[in-house]
Amino acid sequence: MKLKQVTHSRSGDKGNISNVSVIVYRMEDYEKVKKQVTAEKVKDYFHEIVKGDVVRYELPKIGALNFVMQNALGGGVTKSLTLDRHGKSMSSALMDMEIDMEVDVNDSNY
């Protein structure tokens, strides 16, 4: 399943740093998402874009993970000739990440 089926995202960018959060819709999914969406997996997912470190911060009380990606925007939004070098583009891309998780498709909360 795609990550976006159980989470939504917020993002930001500053200079050459992208900040992407992953927030579960249902708190009971937090530990499953935390186990699968690691800093290493996010770094690998964006290996062609993110040239620096990826650090994950955990926010369990709000069911969120925050990923800070260094050297991720081709020099920065105002320096890159690429039109799509914003944090929000990266958050949308991350929502397409495949995760191994089962949910009850009959549950109206999904």
Chart the SSEs and their pairings.
Layout: E1 7-14, E2 17-24, H1 30-36, H2 39-45, E3 54-59, E4 64-69, H3 87-95
Antiparallel strand pairs: 1-2, 2-4, 3-4
Characterise the protein shown here.
The protein is α+β, with helices and mostly antiparallel strands and 110 residues long. It is 21% helix and 25% strand. The protein is built from 3 helices and 4 strands. The chain has helices spanning 30-36, 39-45, 87-95; strands spanning 7-14, 17-24, 54-59, 64-69. Strands 1-2-4-3 form a 4-stranded antiparallel beta sheet. The two termini are 12 Å apart. The mean pLDDT is 86.
How confident is the prediction overall: mean pLDDT? Answer: 86
**How large is the count of helical segments?**
3
Beta-strand proportion: 25-35%
Order of helices and strands: EEHHEEH
* Multimeric state: single chain
Index terms:
single chain, 110 residues, alpha+beta, four-stranded antiparallel β-sheet, 3 helices, 21% helix
Quick structural gist:
With 110 residues, the chain is of the alpha+beta class. The chain has helices at 30-36, 39-45, 87-95, and strands at 7-14, 17-24, 54-59, 64-69.
